[in-house]
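pipeline: protein-struct stage 2 | run 1193 | Vesicular inhibitory amino acid transporter
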Amino acid sequence: MATLLRSKLSNVATSVSNKSQAKMSGMFARMGFQAATDEEAVGFAHCDDLDMEHRQGLQMDILKSDGGEEGAEPPLEGDIHYQRDGTGPLPPSASKEGGVCSELSGQGKPKITAWEAGWNVTNAIQGMFVLGLPYAILHGGYLGLFLIIFAAVVCCYTGKILIACLYEENEDGEVVRVRDSYVDIANACCAPRFPTLGGRIVNVAQIIELVMTCILYVVVSGNLMYNSFPNLPVSQKSWSIIATAVLLPCAFLKNLKAVSKFSLLCTLAHFVINILVIAYCLSRARDWAWDKVKFYIDVKKFPISIGIIVFSYTSQIFLPSLEGNMQNPKEFHCMMNWTHIAACILKGLFALVAYLTWADETKEVITDNLPSTIRAVVNIFLVAKALLSYPLPFFAAVEVLERSLFQDGNRAFFPNCYGGDGRLKSWGLTLRCALVVFTLLMAIYVPHFALLMGLTGSLTGAGLCFLLPSLFHLKLLWRKLLWHHVFFDVAIFVIGGICSVSGFIHSLEGLIEAFRTNAED
């Protein structure tokens, strides 16, 4: 009798402990979710489980109390803990084919309001890369301002039509959700002849964008530190090496809980920094150079500006999960409208007032134009934000690579990079270290923030935000589309294609030239 009583008490204690642990994990997961979307390049990669840290590629298992014992309580809905070794049951849709990013169905999990969804979209399109927008105005003038508005309208529209591709009518004529992610939409468009081709293309685009985002963080860290302390005998390349040395422990990350606690604070600090920059610009309003804002464009450099502007709006890759996790998905369109209108106004004002303040002296990273008295403080905060943001896209890129190369069942190219005990094997660690070193080498040989940002925006940003959504919309729903929708989709595809190709060519030429110059030095 005493043994049975002791056993029951032990089960109850274990159940209470698990529930408490799960609640804390859920709280940090929500914090991590908010932080994970603080940059454009993070949102598109994280395979869409926005309220849970599965969004960073983590496998999570439902906590279960011992169901075989009498008196044991059923698990709380949504209770989770990490399962890095893959021994726990996979999420409901983790066995789906058609892409390396697995997603949860969204059932039985806490939903988010339209305001929370809007906060995440705002974080995704209002990140620190807006610091490059004044440089785009330098080469585009008023046309650059128009493109900031145009890109907001187009990205808002393509986000809505991408969500429309998730739904189809059933036999009863009801519109039901039949797909969960960008990858599912891509695979549906390529089926039945190539059922997994579309998903692989989307995943490759995600990896490229994630890795380029990591490179940009290293570049901007070296640039900001060099311009903050120009009197020190340390070059920009040396600062980049120092930043990478700080980031090397990212290769050993198993989860992002610790990092995500700080990332939300960094996001708030970034908004404060933007306000400080605008306040300084307004204090010099009497000296604004309105005559410097022209209607002509720099034909050679303006295509790069297009990529910079497009890159600052990329968020489409995580929108399907965002909409699926909303309490009222019908509010998605309204949420997209006000978030992109707000982003358009804030970006336009920030870019314009910054350019009017420094005119032809506007630099690639606008904080480098600030007086030395406040530049060092502002730049140090930005470097801290960049270094703390680096693990997010890095970890997501590693997860995609690991699943496609090491963990894709019988189709994996290499053995599983995790042992039975969940420990990372040597080749898995080598992959992570190689990725960190690759970002450093790119930052050293091509230390040009604007060129890299323009190349990424022209290549993957335009593809994921302009080309693919319009193409998928036409392919899946063309029989039900009105003529003006068809016209918009075709126009966006053509214009996006032209901008993407021209921006990619000019950015690539600039990068090759910069690479040769640095190699000679």
